[in-house]
């Protein structure tokens, strides 16, 4: 079994790749960027669409590792730990949106403060999965994930969930629950809405069960093979469903859940083989920096991006790059890469001193 006293390097690396990817795709320099660095307009799947689901999958694995220390036994201390972390992450997510409004000159526009978001979804998924894991057996957790996905598939098919307009059942439900002003304003469907958090919870449960496979399989070979087989089966089922349930990040469709979980499991298996099995570690130091302090560096990147935008520093920096690199797509990508590098530089001293900021 995996030694609990040392970090699982391959998991840190996958987490780091994912967080660096999240920062990369969120910080395009100019108005034009490569298609692979943009989310799908509606149905479809681009590399950009993989970063958030990969993070939730990894969080599921990490949640298993964390609760394993408490032998999955509910107690007042465990409940406090789960709820404290949930509230903290959720409030940080809301605070980032508020900070963005403040920088835009709207100090008390609470009627349009966005309640949903990436960190808020992370908080809700972490909370629900952690609490379920304290009271349900692994097989029951698997059934729970399956039931959620089947019920959600029925909701999408019967409620016009694949229609990108205000008649979409997700739009109607989210507006009824939160009101229009507190949702994502750029399109009818909020990509981190309340209702579409349900399949994201199932997504995190799948990651949790893969965490069990990693931690409880008695040999590295069984961990790797088990993850590869799991990943293949998830992808196969997901792709088979795409005719009836297209891949769609905006609604977090069941096929999207299964395919992205399958891809994440397969990549984790490959990293287990090369890093933990073959000891090929020299290439991954950069991603490890992001992997050991993921939420801190993600939050820092969001705050820095808001400040750069509010002070008009971003167009100046991008303009300087574009003056040298005339291709707008390449100039935008260079800005994104430089932004990621700066975040990595900010996280490097923490990595060197083995300081892990837990949010």
Show the helix and strand layout:
Blueprint: H1 9-26, H2 51-68, H3 76-103, H4 118-135, H5 138-158, H6 169-178, H7 197-216, H8 220-240, H9 254-277, H10 285-292, H11 294-310, H12 313-324, H13 328-352
Please outline what is shown here.
The chain is mainly alpha-helical.
User: What would you report as the Rg, rounded to the nearest angstrom?
Assistant: 20 Å
Strand content: under 5%
N-end to C-end Cα span? 27 Å
SSE order, one letter for each helix or strand: HHHHHHHHHHHHH
Major sheet attributes: none
Q: Outline, from the CA principal axes?
A: globular
Number of strands: 0
Low-confidence stretches: 1-5
Class computed from helices, strands and strand pairing: mainly alpha
Mean pLDDT: 94
Descriptive tags:
mainly alpha; globular
Walkthrough of the structure:
The protein contains 13 helices and no strands. With 359 residues, the chain is mainly alpha-helical. The chain has a domain of 242 residues. The radius of gyration is 20 Å and the shape is globular. The N terminus is likely disordered.
